[in-house]
Specification:
The complex is a heterodimer of chains A (472) and B (314). By secondary structure, chain A is α+β, with helices and mostly antiparallel strands. Chain A contains 15 helices and 21 strands. In chain A, the strands form five sheets. In chain A, strands 1-21-20-17-16 form a five-stranded mixed beta sheet. Chain A has a five-stranded mixed beta sheet with strand order 11-3-2-18-19. In chain A, a hairpin with a 4-residue loop joins strand 18 and strand 19. Chain B has 314 residues and is mainly α. Chain B folds into two domains: 153 residues, no CATH class; 158 residues, no CATH class. Chain B is built from 15 helices and no strands. The longest helix of chain B is centred in the first third of the chain and has 31 residues. Chain B starts with a helix and ends with a helix. Classes of the chains: A alpha+beta (472), B mainly alpha (314). Chains A and B meet through helix 2, helix 9, strand 5 and strand 7 of A and helix 1, helix 5 and helix 6 of B.
Chain lengths: 472, 314
């Protein structure tokens, strides 16, 4: 593999400008001070209870995501290019989903194959011809981006359902400001703390037309056993809205109400952190105890906004991903500002042949996989793993895509042996309201803590960093 | 606010108060059990602790008739099979707190969460008396911190009022039970009122509600049963007395009613009980029987709890 691009240090050993102040500081500060602050950060995280659950791991019912105290830094210029690309991409996602559930121009034009929509398990026939408030579907998107050199960002994945992680973006910043005030004095870092205000403005702008001028917004959580429960309660708290569970809501005459100490109160916008499948036992999984019976009927009647809309999964699996550049051109008539990682769709015979011949150099992913599970990293895999995937691919090629192993950029990271480069990615959050698109400068940087590892997922031992966008 | 949130706050406060009460019961029992027999020490202290905590029946199902320091301490403090053990109180309190984090202030949450983390450090198996003492003071400090955090940081709205109502309903129940059990179980029939045994027993009741010093300040005489009962039932100055609890319950329920612009049976029941306490005199209570009086009170208190649930928490 080629040597990865390091965001702080150039190949010749010189320091990139964004990191100048940080590099000076790092060389001055003794390692034991760093270690002390790291422990302090961990202590604070645990006491506040910023934990997540790992499914299938009973010992670690509530684990901390490791937090790396060295920030990841982007210049204002880099960010402004990035955010234009993110806005463009999210616009296209919204237009695509609307089209898929209404006129289907893009299918008729033969740009996206029909079976990719109709055979897709997350395609919701219930949404066909269904009008949603303001024609918007993906109100909160998490677009995963990686970097390979000074100029090039790739989109790795679009998360158009219920992207999580934004609480870490906000808490990481809080903790960094508490632990390293001297760093913030030297660097002009654009704030992210207004995210929840922007989110509330976005959610209110999405209220159905039948709502009052001050719509009632709630956050819907599956409950305290969900892995992202902390984030749900954090967001409700910062938004100043109720955190409800399915049992707190009921439907009467196609209107959603919540049970309060003063009797029923109407609900207009539901920021749901619950998958489509569980939303309404009458419409989807009948065994769901987490949802609200009749919710889809109220939704269809136009009396409530669900964010994100039902059925957005058709836009974010890895097979659809490979068509994103065409999707952007089709709806916006523009060239994509952010690149896609070149992707082989194993559903196409010539692509499959190429993939099977080059397994040892490719990353193979399940179309609907997430969390870093069920993937093959060719260059890191042994013979048996490769053969296993060869068989899987032959049996069910449509379930897989393959990509070259990218040399993800690295950032200095505080690990056992001191400060060392580790691979990172970035998840910025894009908010789409009926009035405009809002993106706070930054996002969640995830870092693979093991040397050489490319897997940044928290369920696989990845950590997080504070992400700085410098105000220039 | 959401009914479920109000319910969680109400029970969160009740469980924190209950943990505190259990810690006090254990503390005092240990103290009494160490006294020489002539001064009131006896073998049934641990059994009486179970009665006061209201879990004698459950204990019998698990351990049989044998009561001793070790099995009672572990049952009241740690046993997973005792739903009201201190550990379970903290577990339930934290689960409730997690589901209503948005309604708690950071200080309240941190108190509960760090207590819950700290709890893991205490093992039930090999606890020396010294460790037990440390554990009990940790429990008491936790509820002091929680109470203080709530009082100092919460907005004065329905969230605060529901949690206060929960705390005082639980506290009234605990005070009533401590008084009842001590009076009927501890005092042997043959013992003369005013004897040394009597003195230490009644002093222990005061100690369990941390009111021994207050007693002397209020009555300026030696400890006597009817004065202890007066202090814990009728004296409004005493923050754990039934009267004081009901003054608070009435006040907070009235706050809720005013805020929502409507009142119901909970407010009426609370006011009736408060009026009855206000019209009672100690002589009459002793004449009709302290036990009967307390029994009637506990029933009314439970009825209030059920009514609050019906009216607001479902």
């Amino acid at each position: 593999m080629t040597v990865a691009f390091d965001e702080m240090t150039n190949a010749d050993g010189s320091i990139r400008s964004a990191y100048a102040a940080l590099a000076r500081w790092l060389s001055d500060v003794p390692p034991d001070v760093l270690d002390f602050r790291r422990r302090e950060a961990e202590f604070i995280f645990r006491r506040i209870g910023i934990t997540f659950a790992v499914y299938g791991d009973s010992d670690a019912q509530e684990r901390l995501i490791p937090f790396d105290i060295i920030p990841r830094i982007l210049t204002g210029g880099e960010w402004s290019r990035l955010s234009k690309g993110l806005e463009q991409r999210t616009k296209a996602l919204n237009l695509y989903i609307k089209d898929v559930y209404s006129k289907r121009d893009i299918l008729k034009a033969g740009i996206v194959p029909e079976d990719l929509v109709y055979q897709n398990p997350v395609f919701r026939p219930e949404m066909n011809g269904q009008k949603v408030p303001h024609d918007l579907y993906v109100h909160i998107a998490g677009i995963d981006v990686v970097r390979v050199d000074a100029d090039t960002f790739y989109v790795l994945e679009d998360n158009a359902r219920t992207p999580s992680g934004v609480s870490y973006m906000l808490e990481n910043r809080e903790i960094m400001m508490r632990l390293f005030p001297e760093l913030f004095a030297e660097n002009r870092v654009a704030p992210v703390e207004n995210y929840t205000d922007e989110l509330l403005a976005t959610l209110k702008s999405l209220a159905p037309t039948t709502a009052t001028s001050d719509p009632n917004v709630v956050v819907l959580t599956p409950g305290i056993y969900n892995s992202a429960y902390y984030e749900h309660s954090f967001l409700a708290d910062k938004l100043g809205v109720e955190l409800v569970e399915g049992r707190d809501l009921f439907i009467k005459n196609d209107i959603v109400f919540m049970r309060t100490t003063e009797g029923p109160k109407r609900v207009d916008v539901i920021y749901r952190r619950l998958d489509d499948d569980f939303l309404d036992p009458l419409a989807f999984r009948p065994d769901s105890a987490l949802g609200v019976p009749g919710l889809m009927s109220a939704y269809n009647a136009g009396n409530v906004t669900l964010t994100n809309a039902v059925g957005t999964g058709v836009a974010d699996d890895k097979a659809v991903y490979s068509y994103m550049p065409e999707i952007i051109r089709f709806y916006l008539g523009e060239e994509p500002l952010l690149k896609n990682v070149p992707t082989w769709r194993c559903r196409e015979p010539e692509h499959l042949k190429y993939v099977l011949d080059h397994l040892h150099e490719l990353v193979v992913k399940e179309v609907h996989g997430s969390g870093g599970y069920g993937m093959l990293i060719g260059p890191r895999a042994d013979k048996a793993q490769i053969e296993l995937f060869r068989n899987k691919l032959k049996q069910d090629p449509t379930n897989f895509i393959a990509q070259p192993t990218l040399a993800l950029s690295t950032c200095p990271t505080f690990v056992e042996e001191g400060i060392a480069p580790r691979h990172v990615d970035l998840r910025p959050f894009v908010l789409t309201g009926s009035d405009r698109v809002r993106i706070v400068p930054g996002g969640l940087t995830r870092v693979a803590l093991q040397a050489g590892s490319l897997v940044v997922n928290s369920s696989q031992g990845g950590g997080t960093k504070d992400t700085w966008v410098l105000d220039e | 606010m959401l009914s479920r949130t109000a319910d969680n706050l109400y029970w969160l406060a009740r469980y924190m108060e209950r943990a505190d009460c259990l810690a006090r019961i254990l503390d005092v029992t240990q103290r009494l059990a160490q006294l020489p027999t002539a001064y009131g020490g006896s073998t049934n202290e641990w059994r009486s602790a179970l009665l006061t905590a209201g879990c004698a029946d459950l204990f019998k199902q698990v351990h049989g008739d044998e009561t001793n320091e070790q099995n009672v301490v572990s049952f009241l403090a740690f046993a997973p099979e005792n739903p009201s053990s201190i550990r379970n109180c903290f577990e339930i309190a934290r689960t409730n707190a997690r589901s209503v984090r948005t309604a708690l202030t950071m200080e309240m949450w941190e108190t509960i969460n760090s207590a819950w983390l700290e709890l893991k450090r205490y093992s039930t198996k090999s606890m020396t008396r010294e460790e037990l003492a440390r554990f009990l003071s940790f429990v008491k400090e936790t509820s002091l911190r929680f109470d203080g955090a709530a009082y100092r940081t919460m907005l004065r709205n329905d969230a605060f009022w529901f949690s206060r109502v929960g705390m005082y309903v639980e506290r009234a129940d605990n005070t009533a039970r401590i008084l009842d059990v001590k009076y009927h179980v501890l005092l042997p029939d043959t013992e003369h009122v005013g004897g040394p045994l009597d003195y230490f027993q009644w002093a222990s009741i005061l100690r369990s509600v941390s009111a021994l010093t207050s007693f002397h300040w209020v009555y300026r005489q030696s400890v006597k049963p009817w004065l202890v009962a007066d202090l814990l039932i009728l004296n409004a100055q005493m923050p754990r007395s039934l009267t004081s609890c009901y003054q608070n319950i009435t006040r907070y329920l009235d706050d809720i009613a005013a805020y929502y612009g409507r009142q119901g049976s909970a407010q009426r029941i609370a006011r009736t009980t408060l009026t009855r306490l206000g019209n009672s005199r100690m002589d009459d209570i002793f004449q009709t029987g302290l036990h009967e009086f307390i029994d009637g009170f506990v029933v009314e208190n439970n009825r209030l709890g059920a009514t609050v649930t019906d009216q607001y928490l479902l």
